[in-house]
Amino acid sequence: MSNNKESIEFRKLEHLLVCNYCDVEYKKGTLFKDIELIHRGVSNCNLLDIDTSINLFGKKLDAPLIVAAITGGHSKAEEINKNIAKAVEELNLGMGVGSQRAGLLNSNLWSTYSIVNDYDIPFIMGNLGAVNFIKDGWDEEIIDISVNMINADAMAIHFNPLQEAIQPEGDIDFKGIHILKDIMLNYKQKYKNIPFIAKQVGEGFSKEDAITLKNLGFDGIDVGGSGGTSWAAVEYYRIKDEEFKNFSKKFLEWGIPTAASVLLVKSVFPGTIIATGGIRSGIDMAKSIVIGAHCCGVALPILRAALRSYEEVVKVLEKMIKELKTVMFLTGCDNIESLKKSKYIIKNELKEWIKE
Ligand SMILES: Cc1cc2nc3c(=O)[nH]c(=O)nc-3n(C[C@H](O)[C@H](O)[C@H](O)COP(=O)(O)O)c2cc1C
């Protein structure tokens, strides 16, 4: 098992290449297809006046959209984060950086993350792995270094048991996660009162998870549900060893679809909910908001665009926002608050999930 700093950087680079060139998305989908919004034939809105702005943890974003954690900590990361940051500044959206562990191990890599501070971004989210608090004894000081690395407005703590379980070099001991409660509290008391967001990376959180996360004191949950990037697929293409390949293949479709995870988490969690995982259009965004998310996150299409140019990132994000505005126009909602109150129908498989 090799987890030294060179192998972490190399693995991150391999993940980017696999995500760019291979079909790494779930086939089963997010289940947003099982939500119908009610068309309002009269509309009673002016499409040009539709206001998609939101307030996320006290920061104003022009649309309920953040670019989810993707990268940092290797040779290609600075350019990718720069292209994302420039686009996000232009559109006044939020942005998360990828896991900061590589930066914590090697300060020469800080600029691959801190490049985001060259841009005026209203909401920047840091990223640390839950398992490292257990395995490596991370504490509030590590959070402080990570927050300062990028002037973070919030810190995401990612939970990725599937990814760790299928990686030959994975960290597989998630026992003892309750230590996060004191660490987050100590950080808030000693350093800065920023929000903490529990984040999945593509397999979703259940209702029971949401209760645990609420009890740990998390301010927000990014459901990171299934339907978009499948980490089993990413590892399937990345790993050369046949045995591991066959193993990850069995988990290609594992996880709670994003729409189901939002509904399950919403039923018990009173804090902020971010819908990430297979958000591919403004229609997905609108449906997320209607069923209870406060904001959405998107990763894979942005990574692919950012590997090309900042203009490509702007194009993808602008298209999603235009689609969101159109849905709002068609549902008679001229702002996000009224979209939240919109009526909807839940059908088929999604209905089964919420009976659970
Ligand atoms: C190349 C790549 C790297 C990622 N790295 C991280 C990471 O470091 N930390 C994290 O919390 N999530 C990470 N994610 C997960 C995303 O933030 C997101 O939750 C997931 O990809 C689902 O969204 P999508 O379907 O829009 O890609 C990564 C995703 C991709 C595609």
TrEMBL record:
Catalytic activity: isopentenyl diphosphate = dimethylallyl diphosphate
Subcellular localization(s) per the UniProt record: Cytoplasm
Co-factor requirement: FMN; Mg(2+); NADPH
Organism domain of life: Archaea
Full protein name: Isopentenyl-diphosphate delta-isomerase
NCBIfam families: IPP_isom_2
Binding site for Mg(2+): E164
